[in-house]
Amino acid sequence: MMIDVAEFNGSLGANCTEKGTIFRVWQPLAKRIELRLYDKSRKLIKRAVMRNKDGVFECRVRGDLDGVLYDLAVTRSGETVTCGDPYAKGVTADGRLCVLVNMRRHAPKNWQNDRPIAFPDPEDAVIYELSVRDLSMDESAGFKNRGKLAALCETRSANSHGDKVGLSYIKKLGATHIQLMPIFDFDLDGGEYNWGYNPRFYNAVSAYYSQRDGVSELRAVVAAAHKKGLGVVADVVYNHVFDVEGSVFQRLFPGYFFRTDDTGELSNGSGCGNEFASERVMARKFIVDSLVFLAREYHLDGFRFDLMGLLDLETLREAERKLRGINPDILLYGEGWTGGISPLSESRRAVQKNARALPNYAFFNDRFRDAVKGSVFGEKDCGYVNGAADEWHFEPIREALSGELGEDFWTSDPRQTINYVECHDNLTLFDKLKASFNSLHNEDHARIKKADKMAAALVFLSRGTAFLQAGQELLRTKNGDGNSYKSGDAVNSIKWNALEENRDVADYYRGLIAIRKRFRREMNSAAKTFGHVGEGFVMTAGDFVLVVNPTNEELSPSVAGRFKVFADAERASNKALYTAERLCCAGYSILFARKIK
Hints:
By secondary structure, this protein is of the alpha/beta class. The protein has 13 helices and 23 strands. Helices cover 24% and strands 19% of the residues. The strands form 4 sheets. The chain has an 8-stranded parallel barrel with strand order 10-11-12-13-14-15-16-17. The longest helix is centred in the C-terminal third of the chain and has 23 residues, at 503-525.
């Protein structure tokens, strides 16, 4: 359903200062909107009828209202309904009332001096995806603020073996950015655990992760990360809401903010029952305004867009233009697909095939992911490192390593690819390898480790942006649960003591990342050649040689010379492990070396 309405280019929401607050709400078809203020016990303390000027209702209230609760009584279509403010900067835990926030007042010490990290080349990024709750809930780590944002600011937390965890560990691993799974207000959907992909209010920090002051606590996390040289990326979910009928958007202006199909029913390209109509002018304005607010007020270093394929190209282009005015180095990337059929024309969607229309956005490279480990839609399906080392699986890997993307690929620019083999969705890499090796009647744990290291090497030695899920380097398992969004802490929490058992794997990841950081630019600028060696392959890039061996037989490529070896079956480092007169790659492993001139 399309509704012809007046646009508004000004500021919306509540601007709260010490002297007073200006409230503005856009609803051109409303007859009357009344602002209602409440104290912290939810007792009504003030009513004020808002003035309507060309469809924007405005009200000014004097005095310091920081922390005061509020909602709206909106009269439209012959009825009056209670409604929140879509632009609210704070909200109660139950989502019933909005909270006024003076943003200048809610900040950690020296916040005014904090800045996003300088990061001009997205290919330098190594992104570490984490859930605030999952990071700190397991008893194996000594976090004091379990499950809360404040846990990320702790500097002394360690596992039972004395290994530091949290941001210190992530920095030592070599990641450049942490990607926080949704941290803005969401519905728990009747449970005590949820990943946060049930959005309600997009500008308000979730009370689920905060303790007393979500604004200040999130800013403290960002500042703590920046102090360590880590960027912070927010996972944002503008493609749908948790519950349309209860949504602030629908209650404020029924029918405007959500797409419908030819029958007038809500469309479901998200797979969650609804789609946000980003292409409509004021829906677009909301998304862009929200991103600008979050980037400016929280000094964020990037945004990851959930089901980005449901957002229209024009909205994302406008968002990029304004975001780069705040932070020229901001990272922008997302899922270039939908979760179902959408009425939005495919030519207007931010899907992979339209990547060239968004040259400064990156897209998750699912082709590479499935080539390495097998399809995520079949737990026993195999990829190059776990039993299917054929030409079909090799080609996407060759493209990623070389950066020479085929004509049928969705971009010619490797900066538009996010290379990964594990994220919060689907089986963890360990669980996927275990399931696929079981189908081959091979349950050898050592073989799983070898395949995991091979997969990691392909990620970190490829062009584009490297991405991993928190705990992937610890052989994280969710016991075969491929959709654990509400499975609880026992399944989802990171078991930090696994670092002791799998220290060799974690060290290997750390070494690969260090290799990437030292040699990436040299390798990128070198011409690359590929050749098959047995059932594996060898890549040369100038003086560099990478051998990938998915078989149990040793492979020796016919590359003459004397070499410094930086990674083999057991170890990886940006400093040479040893020198070799000839290259020999052990079974189920990689070998990375540089010819000595």
